[in-house]
Amino acid sequence: MDYPINGELVPQGGGDAIPLTRSPLVLGRRETCDICLQFPNISGKHCELTFKEGFWVIRDLDSTNGIKINGEHAMKKVLHTGDVISIAKRTYAIQYQESGRASALQEFEDELAETMNVPLLEKAGLTHARRHADMPPDEAPQPAVGEQTS
């Protein structure tokens, strides 16, 4: 089946461009990945590229060596054409036609920022109630009359 090409990853320093033909695309060292990068410092499943709202988004899949966008560490980021992606020690420039609306991009980036600021345990609903020491004095529970405090 033929997929339309919606951009490409261009290796910096030479090599064949990697076509971005569908979404999502998993990049990693495993042969089962959509884009197999068989280098020892790349994790089995290193990162994922997803095309959303007319923009490519990259997300680290808890890789050992991480990803960088234009030299900055990132866990999840909206990519713009020309951005340089570093996957471990390999670098690629992404080239594609951005087809989304700027307002949708801003909403999506705000959503990403909000998502990244919420602790994972809280997202999963596994957080514990605040400890007394963490609470402001007026909110901390007071011992009952006759109860000893330690």
In short:
With about 150 residues, the chain is of the alpha+beta class.
Could you tell me the number of beta strands? 11
* Global Rg: 22 Å
Q: How far apart are the first and last residues' alpha carbons, in Å? A: 71 Å
Structural class category: alpha+beta
Largest sheet: 6 strands, antiparallel
- Runs in which pLDDT lies below 50 for 5 or more consecutive residues are none
Characterize the overall form: elongated
- Walk across the major sheet and give the strand order: 2-1-11-10-7-8
Strand content: 25-35%
Report on this structure.
There is one protein chain. This protein has 150 residues and is of the alpha+beta class. It has helices at 102-116, 120-123; strands spanning 8-11, 18-19, 25-28, 35-36, 47-52, 55-60, 67-69, 72-74, 76-79, 84-87, 90-95. The strands form two sheets. A six-stranded antiparallel beta sheet has the order 2-1-11-10-7-8, with no helix packed on it. The protein has a five-stranded mixed beta sheet with strand order 4-3-5-6-9, covered by helices on one side. Strand 5 and strand 6 (55-60) form a beta hairpin. The protein is elongated and about 75 Å long. The model has no long low-confidence stretch (mean pLDDT 80).
